Amino acid sequence: MQDRAWSKTLGLALGxxxxxxxxxxxxxxxxxxxxxxxxxxSADGGGDLPEIPVxxxxxxxxxxxxxxxxxxxxxxxxxxxxxxxxxLRAGGINARVVDAGVSGDxxxxxxxxxxxxxxxxxxxxxxxxxxxGGNDLLRGLSPAETRANFEAMLDDLKRREIPVLLxxxxxxxxxxxEFQAQxxxxxxxxxxDYDVALIPFWLEDIYRDPSLFQSDxxxxxxEGIEKLVASTLDEVKNALPEDxx
Length: 245
Fold this sequence. Notes:
- The N and C termini lie far apart (42 Å).
- The longest helix is centred in the last third of the chain and has 18 residues, at 177-194.
- Helix 4 (80-90) crosses helix 9, helix 5 (107-119) packs parallel to helix 7 (143-159) and helix 7 runs parallel beside helix 8.
- The radius of gyration is 17 Å and the shape is globular.
- It has 245 residues and is α/β, with parallel strands linked by helices.
- It has a single domain (4-19, 40-97, 105-128, 135-165, 176-239), classed as Rossmann fold (3-Layer(aba) Sandwich), CATH 3.40.50.
- Helix content is 43%, strand content 13%.
- It has helices spanning 4-19, 23-26, 67-70, 80-90, 107-119, 134-138, 143-159, 177-194, 222-239, and strands spanning 55-65, 93-101, 127-131, 164-167, 197-199.
- A five-stranded parallel beta sheet has the order 2-1-3-4-5, with helices on both faces.
């Protein structure tokens, strides 16, 4: 069921971004690394989370998405992948989260760079977090096109036997009932068809609070990112395969 507050917030943002030529999602795309090879967090990227000993072998996680993962207009250490790594390590998990977010990416762009990103990793990831679809909405791409791109990515990840956590989005009501129904069903259908973990709407815990978003009403503030990490941490932990070491 669609919340009217989300429809209003995203609807206003869509109009603003369209007027600016989608600048809010793409003006730093050229600066975002498509194939990061290092950990998302720097040595002091843990911020105010305590340094505690971690246990077990390294758990490699790829956070693959758009500007919501790339940390649009945030300090490097304030992005979702960086804060997720810090939270996992604070809980004793020897996590290494690779920030593979690229601002402006649609599902089609993600599909194009997926194999290159995976092939560039020195070890097989323990988990692949797939977060795309917001820019498909902003650009008015059809849900059928978005679905086809996700299916291609999930086919590749399945072939490589890489576990996936899918981060779902919602369409605003002003796109029309048919479009909204098709888009909103997409993530659940894919999660069922490919037997992958799903967070149905990963912005659920922050989207009602405008203070947790930047002025464009699309991208979270640093505080918003912290709340997203807190609200999704258990799902990430549950999606990680059990340590066999």
